[in-house]
Design goal:
mainly alpha; about 0% strand; globular
């Protein structure tokens, strides 16, 4: 495998296209869409692109909140995290991303589970708790 994962994925334009397609898919997925009910989607897309770009070896810098901070009081379940990952894998399939690159990318995100999941439950589609405070728009 030549080059960084960033290069193999196609750079920032390809990562941006995947992030936008993911946001669209997640918005229609009743298993997880309630968790994004009060999220500024423009900010979410920008932060997701920056994080993926940085984590895969690109020159972007993620300046957003830590995963722990941004998901505090969101009540994300184990099942919802798994559904998020399934949606991302499906979008990567749609974009014809190779299995090796998909696995490498998902392996970068899996360790974030501990900072994102607050409820050890297979339940999905749980409401966003009123205590959740979303990050402000950019």
């Amino acid at each position: 495998m030549e080059g960084s994962l960033y290069d193999r994925l196609g750079g920032v334009d390809a990562i941006t296209a995947v992030a936008r397609a993911f946001d669209e898919r997640a918005g229609k997925d009743d298993r997880i869409n309630q968790k994004f009910a009060r999220t500024n989607l423009e900010r979410l897309t920008k932060e997701f692109v920056d994080q993926l770009c940085q984590d895969t070896g690109g020159s972007c810098t993620y300046t957003g909140l830590s995963m722990k901070e941004s998901h505090t009081n969101m009540g994300v379940t184990s099942g919802e995290f798994d559904a998020f990952m399934e949606d991302l894998a499906a979008v990567l399939d749609d974009f014809k991303v190779g299995k090796a690159e998909q696995e490498e990318l998902l392996n970068l995100l899996r360790p974030m589970r501990a900072d994102i999941v607050e409820v050890d439950s297979a339940r999905v589609g749980t409401p966003l708790p009123s205590a959740f405070v979303p990050a402000p728009p950019l």
